[in-house]
Amino acid sequence: MAAPRKENIKDMIMDATEKLLDSQSLDDISLAQIATEAGISKGTLYYHYKTKEDILLAIADRHLEEQLDDFLVWVDNKDKNTSLHRLMKYVIEYNVNGAGPRIHLIYNACLGNEDLREKILERYTKFQKLLKEKIEERTDPQYADFLAWTALLVSDGLILQNGMKNPNINCEDFVRQTDEIFKNLSKN
Fold it and tell me: Any idea what the Cα angle at residue 21 is, between residues 19 and 27, rounded to 5°?
């Protein structure tokens, strides 16, 4: 059997780290655990990533790139209803349902991981500008910047509430209500 390709090993490492992040914080995970979970040697892991933070940066990059690609495919699909309210629902729902390691990314960025913070802010800015452009195509451009940030802020807020297992908020209901509100605003 052929050895995994370099890109596949990186994916295996990121996948293993994400799996471990489902039940532990990054601080509680060792590189040895990641290597074991990925089914590789520590030497192979160190060849590709020197630190856990490097892996987290790669995970952030992968998730943010996937989100951007998926959004472009969805929003440019002429066979779908991509009206303003559907656009807002899609972004919020996608972010909340695909939160994965996002809470760890936000947490580590807020606690001083400057490289991670810069990468996330760079991607937020890129996604917010794209989202703003797509919103401008669907409504009064004067509200596009606000609406783009609203979608991102609501998403992050719901991710945090979900992460804290807040019994007072049902994310699915909140997304549904948000969709209804934007649908009604679009009619006016």
Answer: 140
Give the whole-angstrom CA distance, residue 4 versus residue 6.
7
Nearest-CA neighbor of 75 among 62, 61, 63, 89? Answer: 89
pLDDT per residue as tens digits for the range 26-64: 889 999 999 999 999 999 999 999 998 889 888 888 887
The DSSP 8-state label assigned to residue 111 in this structure reads: T
* Residue 133, amino acid: E
Give, in order, the Cα–Cα distances in Å from 91 to each of 57, 71, 84, 98, 151. 22, 8, 11, 10, 7
Give the three-state DSSP class for 34.
Answer: helix
Q: How far apart are CA 86 and CA 81, in angstroms?
A: 7
- Cβ contact 154:178 at 8 Å: yes
Q: What is the CA radius of gyration of the chain?
A: 19
Contact 19, 7 (CB under 8 A): no
What angle, rounded to 10 degrees, do the helices at 31-38 and 6-21 form?
A: 120
pTM, entire model: 0.80
What residues have CB less than 8 Å from 13, skipping those under 6 apart?
Answer: 34, 35, 38, 40, 45, 48, 49, 55, 58
Q: For the chain, how many helices (H) and strands (E)?
A: 9, 0
